[in-house]
Design goal:
Layout (H helix, E strand, L loop, with lengths): L26 E2 L14 E5 L6 E2 L5 E11 L5 E10 L2 E10 L1 H5 L1 E3 L11 E2 L4 E10 L8 E9 L12 E10 L7 E2 L5 E6 L15 E3 L2 E3 L6 E5 L23 E3 L4 E7 L24 E9 L2 E10 L13 E2 L4 E4 L11 E6 L13 E10 L4 H7 L13 E6 L5 E5 L7
Parallel strand pairs: 12-24
Antiparallel strand pairs: 1-11, 2-4, 3-4, 4-9, 5-6, 5-8, 5-10, 7-9, 10-11, 13-16, 13-26, 14-15, 16-23, 17-22, 18-19, 18-21, 19-20, 20-23, 24-25, 24-26
């Protein structure tokens, strides 16, 4: 799989040395909003963040976040199902995973752990379940999400206090009142493909977890890797290992909002396309390649935007540290520097000025055209191999306002973008 700034320390394998969580994981009586009394569950459950709602190109409101689980039992715990529910209306299901679905949205908190057919936590292990709670409209966004989790053990636990089959409603999670910022697209032109993004499928971005600075960081929760197809729906023409084969290489990258440059890096070379740089061969400071981090405000709240993997020399040619940017101002050119295997722009919004040690915040672009959507995840592999893009049936071009492009979307950005 094409790896691009996907997890500084790991991708689908998760973190090492994460603190076991118990705070925020009080059990809730099934079908109610009231805490249960001293119910021994053996597995604790806690949310990673209060999810921030954002509207996607499917029209639904997405709330991407994660659950952190710890097995305090003496036997392996199998996570059979996880349901996110509206606490005020428990019959309203916001996300539902069971069996192999849980396994595909689950990873043990241990470096280099391969996913298995089931979501199993060994004794003393911590794991992560990725969720994308969705509702059809803004009016349906809940105030609080709770989680109905079914866990099974080979035998009863704690001298019979915990049965072999446990179903509890746990981890009340307040939905954040923080607004997802609406920004201008950082690129212009047609056929920009979201080849690594949010929300429902655990892509390399969505599954990126970084144990840095004593924190469990999910910086790429809503990050997007944009690559550009030509008029024949191909990524490159010529040898795949030559940058000149990618005609969109060097495309201007522009500021998505008015703000201040708080970090920049330049001078790193481009990588050879299709040849992924080894994780151990890159210092953490080089993962984002030549990049800019911009601090901006939206509705009184402070956010940080990352523009990563830009062309050598292009950042310092256009901006300087501390410079105040205007939306649409050029900050560099699209490149292939850092942890990158094909020319692309990695764009994300976060809560701190760090590409890796931060929490990713959903965002929306003020306006763009949804041209189409890939027929399946296999299209990503096809496109990166030089084959033509395959369109999903039934997805017609549609103008979008204040929405987040979703993984596998193909979009057109306006030539002149302005903030909402």
């Amino acid at each position: 799989m094409w790896r691009v700034l996907a997890s500084a320390v790991l991708t689908s394998a998760v973190l090492a040395g994460v603190v076991g969580l118990s705070g925020g994981s009080a059990a809730v009586a099934r079908g109610s909003g009231h805490p249960a009394r001293d119910q021994v569950t053996a597995v604790s459950v806690a949310p990673s963040i209060s999810p921030v709602p954002v509207q996607g190109t499917d029209g639904r409101i997405h709330m991407p976040y994660e659950l952190l689980l710890v097995n305090f039992g003496t036997d392996p715990a199998t996570i059979d199902s996880v349901r996110a529910l509206d606490r005020a209306h428990p019959a309203r299901v916001l996300d539902s995973l069971s069996g192999s679905q849980v396994a595909s949205h689950f990873a043990v908190a241990q470096i280099a752990t391969a996913p298995g057919p089931q979501a199993v936590l060994g004794p003393g292990q911590e794991g992560i379940v990725w969720l994308d709670a969705t509702v059809p409209s803004w009016a349906d966004v809940p105030r609080t999400i709770v989680h109905r989790v079914r866990v099974t053990f080979p035998t009863g636990q704690a001298g019979g206090l915990v049965p072999a089959d446990v179903t509890v409603t746990v981890a009340p999670t307040a939905v954040s009142r923080l607004p997802a910022p609406v920004v201008a697209p950082p690129l212009a032109g047609t056929r920009w493909f979201d080849a690594n993004g949010c929300c429902q499928i655990v892509t390399a971005h969505r599954g990126s977890v970084n144990p840095l600075d004593g924190r469990t960081n999910f910086p790429e929760r809503s990050a997007i890797d944009f690559i550009k197809l030509d008029d024949h729906d191909r990524l490159f023409t010529g040898p795949a290992t030559r940058i000149s084969s990618y005609r969109y290489y060097g495309t201007p990258v522009t500021a998505a909002a008015d703000g201040e440059v708080v970090e920049l890096r330049d001078g790193l070379p481009d990588q050879v396309p299709t040849i992924e740089p080894p994780l151990g061969g890159l210092p953490l400071a080089d993962f984002a390649g030549n990049h800019v981090i911009e601090r901006f405000t939206y509705q009184g709240h402070t956010y940080y935007a990352l523009y990563a993997h830009m062309k050598p020399g292009s950042v310092r040619a256009h901006v300087r540290l501390g410079e105040h940017l205007r939306v649409g101002q050029q900050v560099g050119q699209l490149g292939n520097s850092g942890n990158s295997a094909a020319p692309h722009l990695h764009f994300q919004v976060m809560d701190r000025p760090s590409a890796l040690a931060s929490q990713g915040i959903p965002y929306a672009f003020d306006r763009f055209l949804l041209r189409g959507r890939a027929a399946s995840e296999d299209v990503v592999t096809d496109v990166l191999a030089g084959r033509r893009f395959t369109y999903a049936r039934g997805v017609r071009p549609k103008p979008q306002r204040c929405r987040l492009p979703l993984y596998l979307d193909l979009v057109d950005f306006p030539r002149t973008a302005r903030p909402w």
